[in-house]
Amino acid sequence: MTAQTKRRRSGGRREKVEQRAAPPPNPCPPGQIGGQYRPLSDADLQAIYDTALRLLADLGMGEVPERLRDDLCAAGAHEKADRVCMPRALVEEAIDKAAKRFPLHGRDPNRTIEVGGNAVHFGTGGAAVQTLDRFTGEYRPSTLADLHDFTRLQDTLENVSWFTRCCVATDVADPFELDVNTAYALLKNTTKPVATSFTLAEHIAPIVGMLDIAAGGDGKFSARPFLKTHISPVISPMRFGEDAVDVTYGCIAHNIPISCITAAQSGATAPATLAGFLAQSLAETLASLVMVHAIHPGYPMVFSNWPLVIDLRTGAFSGGGGETAVLNAASAQLSNWLGLPSGVAASMSDAKALDAQYGAEKALTALAAGLAGGNLVYESSGMTAALLGASCEAFVLDNDMLGAVYRTLRGIEVTEETLGYRAIRDAVLGEGHFLGSAQTYAAMERDYHYPVLWDRDDPRTWQVAGGQDAWARASARVDSILASHNPDYLDADADRRIRDSFPILR
Q1: pLDDT, mean over the chain
Q2: Which one, of 290, 408, 402, lies nearest residue 340 by Cα?
Q3: Which of 204, 304, 341, 437 could form a disulfide linkage to 250, CB 3.0–4.6 angstroms apart?
Q4: Burial of 34 (0-12, 13-18, 19+ CB in 10 A)
Q5: Do 207 and 237 contact (CB within 8 A), yes or no?
Q6: Is the pLDDT of residue 323 over 90?
């Protein structure tokens, strides 16, 4: 045997050892197919849709800004006293011409996702004004430093497909500085698709200038927009909000994809009956779609129909529970039935601590939204306290939970190979078990999801290792990520130019 042959064989062994030591590939990445859960029958869907169209045609929308009123009437709407009514033909024209699939670009093209169909992607949302402090375990006002930490933390989480700023930097008082520094935190700390909101329409153009610098030149961002905007142009019940409508016009002018979010609350700004709630909420989100159609037919819009629930005993917003799960699943089903890119919300746990309530509410609502086929499932990572809070530890725990949901969505592949007649025969007639068989090794990497933080040790091993609970394991994981992952996705020249032109505070 020659020395060269020995080196080749040795190198081959090293490669195999390294391959076995590496974590297995993700058998169920984001983008799994939903639609298995259908809380509404076809007759239910039609009845809710017909009621929504009747609301828009007969009752219409109130408080319509003059510019939008003119555009809607030019598109086929008509005025009725101080309201604007949208006939069925106009609504169905808007649905027919709406963008059915479109990309949400990442600055890294490998992180771009497509919205539409039945593909499911979990991401973030929210505007938490409090952060669950990592060291005191108490809630405190969220800061710009928190936003930077949350952004770079989630950059490492494979089951979070895109990042919307999850907290408001309450230590930045000026609205323009807040919008600028929020966008800067996203640019600096992640290359995933990102999203934010604009306080006022006049903030859009200068921030697009900042995005152009990051993209490499004037007009580069609009040519391939890697940031979308969350807008709530409709205020329940059934009226428009002027500032948000202005932001919609500004985003369309700069080719920024938009997510038009309707966030009615059951028993408060929408009916307490679930069917009536869905009808009104669908009508309001369709009004946003007609608005976009009147401004720019076919413009990319995520149809974000978010049913929110209140506890009717107290009037407090409730982010968890069976009603939230079934309503958001039904909303996703309605949107997909119409062929529109759907956005719903999940994992808005009411729990303040990372406890059993937290885990149950998050998993219940995320699984329902995923199984119903919600294209973009917002709020699904990091949020606590009914969206009032955000937590680093919640982010890493939720990443494992979302991986398990994706595994559920993937389902079971039944083939001659996976049925395993020969493997069963060989085990029965041979060693009497399947440990170490070729089929088992293949299935290990192909079929099984392995969470990072979930404890699967026996009680004695767990106790000897320190008996850590979920919070302790998550805290250690966050420590490791924040100590080692310090990305700076802006090159030095772009960062200098942005800092010279904008009030960057961190």
Answers
A1: 94
A2: 290
A3: 204
A4: buried
A5: no
A6: yes
**What is the residue whose two structure tokens read 């391939």?**
224
Structural element, H or E, at residue 173: none
> What is the DSSP-derived secondary structure letter of residue 349?
-
Q: How far apart are CA 88 and CA 101, in angstroms?
A: 23
**What is the pLDDT, as a whole number, of residue 14?**
54
Q: Which residues of 48-82 are buried (b: 16+ CB within 10 A; e: fewer)?
A: bbebbbebbbebbbeebbeebbebbeebbbeeeee
- AA letter at 5: T
Distance (Å, rounded) from C-alpha 147 to C-alpha 506?
11
**CATH tag, 95-410:** 3.20.20.480
Number of helices (H), then strands (E), in the chain: 19, 20
* CB-CB contact of 158 with 399 (8 Å): yes
Tokens describing residue 125: 């949302």
Please say whether the beta carbons of 397 and 361 come within 8 A: no
Global confidence as pTM: 0.93
Measure the CA–CA gap between 215 and 256, rounded to whole angstroms: 14
Which residue matches tokens 């428009």?
240
Which runs of consecutive H residues, i.e. helices, occur in 66-195? 66-75, 88-97, 144-154, 175-189
Judge whether 469 and 146 are in contact, CB under 8 Å.
Answer: no
The angle formed by the CA atoms of residues 345, 161 and 475, to the nearest 5 degrees, is: 85
In this structure, the number of other CB atoms found within 10 A of the CB of residue 356 comes to 10
DSSP string for 261-283 = EE--BBTTTB-SSHHHHHHHHHH
Give me the residue spans of the domains in the chain.
Answer: 95-410
List Cα–Cα distances, 317 to 146, 311, 357, in angstroms.
24, 6, 16
pLDDT value for 24: 64
Rounded to 5 degrees, what are φ and ψ at 58? Answer: -95, -40
CB 218 within 8 A of CB 194: no
Quickly tell me which residue has 């049925």 as its tokens: 419
- Check whether the bond before 237 is cis (ω within 30° of 0): yes
pLDDT digit string (tens) for 86-99? Answer: 999 999 999 999 99
Cα atoms in the 13 Å half-sphere on the side-chain side of 175: 8
